[in-house]
Structures are given as C-alpha cells and as structure tokens.
Amino acid sequence: MGRKKNITFDDIARYTHFSKTTISRYFNNPDSLTLENQEIIADALEKLNYKENKVAKILANGKTEFIGIIIPNLYYQYYSEILDQILKTYETFGYKFLVFVGNGEEAAERKYIQELLSYKIEGMIILTHTIPSRELADLQIPIVTIEREDKFVCSVNTDNYMGGVQAAGLLAKHSCDILIQINSPISEEMPAYGRIRGFVDFCTEHGLKHQILYRELGSVYEYAQKQLTEIAETLEKEYPGQKKGIFVSSDTNANVLLNILIRKYGCLPKDYLIVGFDNAPISREAVIPISTIGQQVEKQAFEAVSLLVEQMNERKKRSPVPLKEPIHKVLTPILFRRDTTERACADIQKMLK
C-alpha cells in the first residue's frame, strides 16, 4: 500500500478556496476570522482528515505549548498529588508539561531550568525552595510558584496561618494538656512558616501550654521514621500521662508517627491526638484516618496554571502589558476531622480487630 499523503496548508487552501494566509490565521489567530470562515475551515479539516504537524507549528510561531515544572520530591504525597492535578489541566488549557524533580540540589535545579529553557517552554511552575524568587524573576519568563518564597514572582498558596490556627483550635477543643507542633526547620519567608505562627499565636492568646519541635525530617521514609521515633520517646519522658495534641507538618509524617505509636501500643493511645496538614490521600487511607488541615490541592493546581496562562497569553499580544507587581493568590484551608482526634481509643481498637 502506498504511504498516505500528509495534508498541507496548500491542500486546505485549494479545498476551501481561501488563501494560505487565511489558513495560517485559522491556526495561529482564529479570532481574526469570522465565525463562518472558521466553521468552513474546521469542516474542511475533518473531511480531509488533517493531522496537525506540531513541529511545523512550533517552527512557524515559536510557541511550544510546553510548561516546565520543578518539584522538590515525590516522597511527600502533597507533591505527587498536586503534580497529578496540574497535569490534569491539559484538558482545559491545552498545555503540555516537562517535569523535573529537584531533590534539594541547587546545582541540579539550575541545570534543569536551563534544560527547560532550551526547549523553549512558555512558562514555569516552581515548587522547589532552593532558588530565590529574585533570581527566578530575572529569567524573563512567566513563572508561578506554589508554597515557596514568592516575593518577586506570582504565586498560589494556602492560608497557612489560618491552618495553624485551625489545628491548634481543634486540639484545644479536646482539652489537651500540651499542644505540640513538629516541623522541619523553615525560613520565615516560606508560606509554610505561617503554620507555626498561627499555631503559636492561638496557643499564646488562649494561654495554652505549647511547644514547637524543630527536627529535620528529610524526604526518605527510614530517616523520618528514626527522627519521629526519637520524638515519640522524648514526649513519653517529658509528658507522661498527659494528653498530648500533636500537629505534624505534613500528612506523610503524621502517618509515620501514627504507625510508630500503633506498633508500640497496638492502638493510638488515648493520650495522643494527631493532626496533619495537606489532606493528602494518606490521611484518608491510613489505618486510622488522620485529622488534617486540607489544602485545596485541585483548586491550587488549577489556579496556578490559570494564572500562568494569563501571563503567557499577555506576552503573545502585539503590545503586551507587563504586570506592575506579582499576583499572590491565597486559598482557604479546610479542616477535616477524622479518627485521630474524634474517636476514643476503645473505638479504634474495635476498628483494628
């Protein structure tokens, strides 16, 4: 059988009796044509079984329809969940994604950025923390960050301060003797630092005994387990018999702590209440579902891509108007009450049998 002929702009022009310029405008600037002419060309494409040549289109207009993404790791479920939600926006916006995992390595991340730029990406979404936003802004490409320092670039974040208040409020409601937050050391410029401030402010305002435990938890399960085991042993020694309300910086680590306690006691003891952060799948799927402060991950991902597309579309205009200052969108967190705060130990024991 002979090879099937690729349909060209010349073929479409002859079929519709339009010029090649008009056909080109249909693909690159359809709004410049009347609706009637758009429909004529669309009908011709269907009847001719036209398959768009993406490479030719990129060479013609320089637009790749690619967005670069750099995420810190895939260990924390929040990152894998938000990456999944970002990728799903293809159906709405039509952009494809090139993804790199930074793993906290600054040199590697700089290399990834240069690699992405060499592919002529139209914009970037950054979730890693290693490169300052000032340096990102100097790249002269539309950028939106998520949950990281964002002074000089656009961003979409959760109201982390409110999340800290919600966590402390939930634990206080259960009359805990001591409220404890477990968090990796973090810069005050990071949005996530708001979780600490909100937690501390609530406890201080209400005269509640509290403690912040800073411990580098890393991005490897075995390392996090070791650190959290040591923390659990310390809490046993310092607060024996006291009701401990624990706010953990992520659902991933909240689940690690929960498993440590269950392995030791066969249950979540009645003097331990646990709240995580993110509403990642693990919080719902844990052997004892974990109460958590939920980031609206689906909305966060959609808003980030939408904000980036707005910037990219502006740059395509004949006379683009640059942003006078970065846009920062903040989403409200949602409290999810689950068994690690809402069910008595006896009830949980029955559930585990």
TrEMBL record:
One of its GO terms (molecular function) is DNA-binding transcription factor activity. Residues 4-51 form the HTH cro/C1-type domain. It comes from the Bacteria. Pfam families: LacI (PF00356), Peripla_BP_3 (PF13377). Residues 7-61 form the HTH lacI-type domain. InterPro entries: Cro/C1-type_HTH, HTH_LacI, LacI/GalR-like_sensor, Lambda_DNA-bd_dom_sf, Peripla_BP_I. Keywords: DNA-binding, Repressor, Transcription, Transcription regulation. Coiled coil: none annotated. PANTHER family: LACI-RELATED TRANSCRIPTIONAL REPRESSOR, RIBOSE OPERON REPRESSOR. This is Substrate-binding domain-containing protein. It comes from Candidatus Blautia merdavium.
